[in-house]
Amino acid sequence: ESSGGEQRLGVTQKNEVKLFGGSSRGAEVLFAVQADRPGPIMSGTPVYLKSVGLSRTIDVEGEAVRTRTQDRGTLQRIVVEKLPPTSEVPAACPSIDLKGSEKAWLLRRGVQHALADKQQMAKFLSGHRPHCRELLKEYSKLWEAEWRQGWSSVLSAADAAEDSTGSPA
């Protein structure tokens, strides 16, 4: 709110996202909320905001918020969360040197939770910076270990289904 008046989020014809005065009621201030799965939208659920007027999805790149495409990717994925009060946020820990396996774990979680763009990470890891090769190797080992663990649980579930019925699932 500004000066006590209601404002609405909207999109200009130039694909800029901005606040409009409360009297705006047109398609420029209407959005469709889309999700990857049906059901209630909970804190932490990724959603996409599609402008009704322009049929484009809001994307966030750095500090820029725009509507450039109809894509539904990393830049367009928005997570609805309630921020905790500042008093509940712990102080940052001091800087420490991380081992390659710890860095790989952080990158893997960043990709899983859409905090890191997969394509940008791949570009970074394929670069010629110091330690990129080691980090890529650690990341690959971690990914494979997680994949094998997930795959073994799928096989175990299939075996259990076969055992209980006497025939393949």
From TrEMBL:
Protein's recorded name: Uncharacterized protein
Species per Swiss-Prot/TrEMBL record: Alexandrium andersonii
